[in-house]
Structure formats: C-alpha cells, structure tokens
Amino acid sequence: MEYVLGKGEVISVAASAGNQTIQVVAGEIWLTRSGDSRDYILRRANRFSIAPAESVVLEALEEASFTLVPAEATAPARLILHVPPAVLHKA
C-alpha cells in the first residue's frame, strides 16, 4: 500500500510483526527512530528498515509518498499508523 503525505505532515509508524521496510516512492521524508539520536533524510528509492515493535516518526519535507514492505513476502504484516489530530483537522 502506498501512503501520501503533504508537505509538513507528520505520521508515526510502528511495526508490530516482523521487520518492515519503508521505501520512498517520491519526495523527501525526515525520519526519526525511537531510541536513536540520529535523524535520517530519505529521498526517492531510499529504504529504511524498522524492527519489530520499533516506531519511527516521518515528516514530509515536501509532498512525498512511501510504501511499507514486509521483510518477507510471506510474513504477516500488521502496522499501526498514528496520525496527530492536527493533521486530521487540517483545512
């Protein structure tokens, strides 16, 4: 499934089963991972792996889209997406 974020939109992603990979399809995304003091800038075709029970926060630095890919095509994937209320109520 492909997700689209408008410039400045923020979303948190938590992988609950198996490793997941975020793959940027278009745009530029700023990624922060729980327990990691580093920040990451992801651009088109960049990938970033998320371990089970790990969470990341993504912010679109420009309009961006990304996909979430399970580490193994046969592994069940369950992702929990949290959208801040400010994003939901954006005019």
Kindly list the characteristics that best describe this protein.
single chain, 91 residues, mainly beta, Jelly Rolls, five-stranded antiparallel β-sheet, four-stranded antiparallel β-sheet, globular
Layout of strands and helices, then pairs:
Blueprint: E1 2-5, E2 10-15, E3 20-26, E4 28-33, E5 39-43, E6 47-50, E7 55-60, E8 64-70, E9 79-82, H1 85-88
Uncertain spans? 74-78
The geometry reads as: globular
Report on the biggest sheet: 5 strands, antiparallel
Helix content range: under 10%
What's the total count of β strands?
9
CATH classification class: Mainly Beta
The overall number of domains is: 1
**Annotated CATH topology:** Jelly Rolls
Q: What structural category characterises the helix and strand content? A: mainly beta
Assign the CATH architecture.
Sandwich
- What is the rounded distance between the termini? 25 Å
Residue-averaged pLDDT, rounded? Answer: 83
What letter string, H or E per element, gives the SSE order?
Answer: EEEEEEEEEH
Number of helices: 1
Assign the CATH superfamily.
Jelly Rolls
Radius of gyration: 13 Å
